[in-house]
UniProtKB/TrEMBL annotation, chains A, B:
It holds the Pfam family Iso_dh. It comes from Mucilaginibacter ximonensis. Homodimer. This is 3-isopropylmalate dehydrogenase. Its cofactor is Mg(2+); Mn(2+). Its main location: cytoplasm.
């Protein structure tokens, strides 16, 4: 199993280390051989070679069967709106170069963690939804710039019918595997790109007669996700709305530190925790590694078709939760384990 | 008091009726004279004259000291992405024509309703925040269209430094009146318009040394609003982010049906409930009129400087809640009053 390892910034390296330990243990148990190839990305890559997604890193990813990714971003860049090179550019360049067009973000609840949710138990129970976020189009990749001596700024959001179809197809197919409900989220009452989305998805409905499709405005969904998250199954949406809604969805379950994600690509697929680089915790050995470990499980299942291996990882994660071998964010009044201790225990 | 009355669509007319009753009762008690001038807007205006914001309606608004607004939008238009005239165009045209550049949306909790919140009591208690949404710029008003035989769509987001300054100034001033915390929400790690926002607000900081300003990404705020809403005070943001975040914020308090809003304009100011046109309930006399009644209170205070009158309205609303004279959405297992009955009782 040929895996590119992109640890990135902040807590990235620490959580990635634990996923590597667990993956190696699984490989040993099931007789696989993993070839890990590490490569630089994010602020770490800017510091080393002046580029957040160097060509060498791209070559490593292209040669791999899957990419395991930590997190990128550094506060040093956030408060400098004029910085010429920024870690996030690397992320966006990577998404585009690898053709990672669909970000798959599940939100589900761990029974043992349900009381961590900011939502009341009866609101969150039974929630099991997937947001499919389009990841290589929209306002993230349109033309942008300044005019009038820098006093006017603009960004352009663009979508083609093909881009919408590609993402929507995945959504319809996932819905077929699940409870056959698809929700297309847009702002068709204002945006032309949203009207293209709605029109395109409407035209595809006839090919999936078993799937019930609903169309909702992004502002309404931002509400309903908090009110009745369990009413959703598969949600498809464009890049920027997906960015906002997936993050919102991630905290409602009470299991934010545990949510994995994958990005399905033309050239390869990428697996990463949904949390950020959490710079305040970097180097402290306190970050929760479970989302990254569960991302590795997703990788075994989706990139390599190794279901049993994936399930073994999920089982040991559940066991660690049940036995309280958890980092401080989940420990409550009990003993908090270090990031590396959790990784060792799981492995 | 010269007030333009725009009832709009769906439940708009019903809830507006109650606000008129209450305003008239207040005017009588405090010896004011109100001249109401009704005008058409939304789907209602399309049906009558083919235009969602007719010139005549604009003239009525321009001549008024304040506009009291219900809601617009009709599902008939939502699922027809090709409709040429849509109710929302009227809303946008009105915002632009009246120069309503700042939408002020408070989110606070009513102690008696706190258990209606989807959030746990300890998460929501003490929440009292204001989102200031820029309302006449951004992707709502940029160039948009189709190319490639309709297969490519685009929308443009544009902001000028002056637009940002105008909105941010209000934000700084509000923060000074409150707990002196201002949060600027953007996506400066991706968007050029966001970088202009951040840069412009940063440059204004020196004029308000007492205000502590933080800068957060919209995806992070979508999370933190659910996790720790009480950590926010005044939030400023651009049009589309404001659309999503204000709606998200509106449901966390458990008092969605009660939240008023105002839009501060160059020519006049507009007051409206934050809920939508709720077409399923239209004509049934079941919609909660309190948000519209509280919008009238905001109008008395902010447009006419009549604080005592505003407080009298807020007091009677609190009384109706305490005594359980409420519509079905708030009645729980108790008797539900009709929209019109609540209005009569308040008046
Ligand atoms: C870091 C940033 C550019 C990125 C995004 O907005 O896509 C992040 O928020 C994410 O969701 O992966
Ligand atoms: C109806 C729609 C155009 C409008 C908006 O997006 O501004 C509404 O959602 C609002 O927030 O007032």
């Amino acid at each position: 199993l040929n895996i590119a390892l992109l640890a990135g910034d902040g807590i990235g390296p620490e959580v990635i280390d634990q996923a590597v330990k667990v993956s190696n243990a699984i490989a040993k148990k099931f007789n696989h051989e993993i070839a890990w190839t590490s490569a630089l990305t994010g602020a770490a890559a800017i510091d080393a070679v002046g580029e957040p997604y160097p060509d060498e890193t791209h070559a490593v990813c292209m040669a791999a069967d899957a990419v395991l990714f930590g997190a990128i971003g550094h506060p040093r860049f956030d408060n400098d709106p004029t910085a010429k090179v920024r870690p996030e550019q690397g992320l966006l360049k990577m998404r585009k170069a690898l053709g990672l067009y669909a970000n798959v973000r599940p939100t589900f609840t761990f029974p043992s963690l349900i009381d961590n949710s900011p939502l009341k138990r009866e609101r969150i129970e039974g929630t099991d939804l997937i947001i499919l976020r389009e990841l290589t189009g929209g306002i993230y990749f349109g033309e942008r710039g300044r005019k009038d001596d820098g006093n006017t700024a603009f960004d352009t959001c663009t979508y083609t019918k093909e881009e919408v179809e590609r993402l929507a197809k995945l959504g319809f197919e996932m819905a077929l595997q699940r409870s056959k409900k698809l929700c297309c989220v847009d702002k068709a009452n204002v945006l032309e790109t949203s009207r293209l989305w709605r029109q395109t998805v409407q035209a595809m409905e006839k090919d999936y007669p078993e799937v019930t499709v609903s169309y909702e405005f992004v502002d309404a969904v931002a509400m309903r996700l908090v009110q009745w998250p369990s009413s959703y199954d598969v949600i498809i949406t464009e890049n920027l709305f997906g960015d906002i809604l997936t993050d919102e969805a991630s905290v409602i379950s009470g299991s934010m530190g545990l949510m994995p994600s994958s990005s399905i690509g033309v050239h390869t697929s990428l697996f990463e925790p949904i949390h950020g680089s959490y710079p305040q915790a970097a180097g402290k050995d306190i970050a929760n590694p479970l989302a990254t470990v569960l991302s590795a499980a997703m990788m075994f299942e989706d990139a390599f078709g190794l279901k049993e291996e994936a399930q073994a990882i999920r089982d040991v994660v559940n066991k660690s939760l049940a036995e309280g071998v958890v980092t401080e964010d989940l420990a409550g009044k009990n003993k908090a384990y270090k990031t590396s201790e959790v990784g060792d225990w799981l492995a």
